[in-house]
Amino acid sequence: MTFVLPLSVPPLEFSSFLAQREPSWPCLRRWGxxxxxxxxxxxxxxxHAQGATPAQTATRSxxxxxxxxxxxxxxxxxxxxxxxxxxxxxxASKIWHVxxxxxxxxxxxxxxxTPRTTIRRNNDVITFVPEAKTALVEKRDSLGLFPELLRxxxxxxxxxxxxxxxxxxxxxxxxxxxxxxLPRDELRFGYRIWSEQQSGLVVKLQTLGQQxxxxxxxxxxxxxxxxxxxxxxxxxxxKDTRGYEVHKPALKKTSAExxxxxxxxxxxxxxxxxCHTRDSGTAQAPGMAPMQWVFSDGLASVSLFVEPFDxxxxxxxxxxxxxxxxxxxxxxxEHWLTVLGEVPEQTLRRFALALERTR
Length: 359
Hints:
The protein is mainly β. The chain contains 6 helices and 21 strands. It has 2 domains: 12-246, Lipoprotein localisation LolA/LolB/LppX (outer membrane lipoprotein receptor (LolB), chain A, Clam), CATH 2.50.20.10; 251-357, MucB/RseB, C-terminal domain (Phosphorylase Kinase, domain 1), CATH 3.30.200.
């Protein structure tokens, strides 16, 4: 969520940006094909059942739950198979994850679709595509289930979400606390999350629509905690590009203001997190380089992709949806805007209508 996004609207110029949505547990909601395959069965049981202790059942705030999950995803070594589904689409990947206190590494091998191996060391990522003999080198946000949770300027999550503890279930052989993170308005989706009792590691996650239905779902079908994953071996694999053509997208960190853009009114709860342009290697007029502007409310993220208008490709304004991933596109003067995110369509439209050129 390459991730090949099954939407036709994102501009081709942003292939390097969209590649950042490569399936990468535990950044679960970065996946592009995601929701309706139940990997566990049975009803949730009260938290006092199955031997849970009082400490395990104590009520936590939404921030306490999310911080526990965030840290749980960063501090355990594990090997597992993650299955992700959305509508009629389903994908699976094998994941190796290890950390030593200062750095984290993961290897992700796709088990369905085009063979692909992604290896990550903190912010450095390389994706190998054996069939094409290509390797994409890039930098991405730090690891974590909700990568913006601890990076948003103001932690407004409790203002827009609330937590509801549900019970306990087994997932991939592990007891997990169930909690629902529910939105307080109609601009974002909710989540039902299974958090492994001892570590807090998220072992299953559902994205919930505005009527409470499951839009996407992902879960470990098998999971070995505290697995003997070799960081040295992953480092060697990451550096071994023999026989591969290496691509490194030239991205420039910037600001929307510097590129001549602004939102004439904010979307409640969302803060700007980053802004990059793509360097094509040729001279471009100011403000004409393809740009990605990312917003987050700490859980959900929205990307605004802006590029010069091309009448050959940008035929009509449109919208599309796969699982919880929505997109809308429209012309803004001499530019084409695509807004993409795992939020309701009305949220994306608020971003699309608020974007304006300042010069």
